[in-house]
Write a structure and sequence with these properties.
This protein has 126 residues and is an alpha/beta fold. The chain has one domain. 28% of the residues lie in helices and 22% in strands. Helix 1 runs parallel beside helix 2. It is globular.
């Protein structure tokens, strides 16, 4: 990506475009909330089938509680396909899973405008 010019960005919702072709992209980003300590299962299934080999990849994700290992599944898929990880951006995200629902959720108000700006900065600096 040339940092002196704006990069084009194509967004694909894998639940709406489950057969999207990624072969023409040089760099592929995966964005997801965290569910059961992993990125969305639909995203993992999509990446396993449709991520081309030897691509640059990055991840952006939100989580309710800071635990490590969230990207294990997507990293395994990228490694299997000989892709190079450029980095990852993460921040808090509103979470109402399981017992958190009983207390009205955790990380209310996240992601903040500052956190969204951080994701934008991360992407632009890839």
């Amino acid at each position: 990506m040339n940092k002196s010019t704006p990069a084009s960005l194509t967004l694909i919702n894998v639940t709406e475009q489950p057969d999207a072709d990624l072969t023409s992209f040089d760099c592929i980003g995966f964005a997801s909330g965290i569910y059961f300590s992993s990125v969305a299962k639909q995203l993992l299934s999509f990446a396993d089938v449709h991520l081309p080999e030897n691509k640059d990849v990055f991840c952006i994700y939100t989580y309710g509680a800071p635990v490590s290992g969230f990207l294990k599944g997507i990293r395994e898929i990228a490694e299997k396909k000989h892709c190079r990880e450029l980095g990852a951006y993460h921040c808090l995200g509103f979470d109402t899973f399981g017992p958190f629902k009983l207390v009205g959720g955790i990380a209310k108000g996240h992601p903040t405008e500052e956190e969204i700006a951080g994701a934008t900065k991360f992407y632009r600096e890839l």
